[in-house]
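Bumping my old thread because nobody answered last time. Still need a sequence for this structure:
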């Protein structure tokens, strides 16, 4: 599994118990197990939820499921 796929899978896993739709960046951070400090790692690559949320735009919301969140974050991060 490459870094993109690994980070994508970790985001989905981190949001597995989240309640959707997620309407705001604050709600998204609250949905991660350790909030903004939740970290996804793949090899030397490390991305925190706090960093990832900075890549999002107001127009990205609402998110309807964890895959949608993961898709947008990995694309915006250039993974």
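Sorry it took so long. Here it is:
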């Amino acid at each position: 599994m490459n870094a993109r796929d690994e980070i994508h899978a970790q985001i989905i896993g981190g949001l597995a118990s989240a309640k959707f739709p997620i309407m705001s960046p604050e709600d998204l951070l609250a949905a991660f197990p350790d909030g903004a400090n939740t970290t996804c790692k793949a090899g030397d690559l490390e991305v925190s939820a706090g960093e990832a949320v900075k890549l999002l735009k107001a127009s990205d919301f609402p998110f309807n499921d964890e895959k949608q969140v993961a898709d947008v974050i990995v694309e915006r991060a250039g993974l």
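The beta strands are 39-42, 45-48. Let me know if any region looks off to you.
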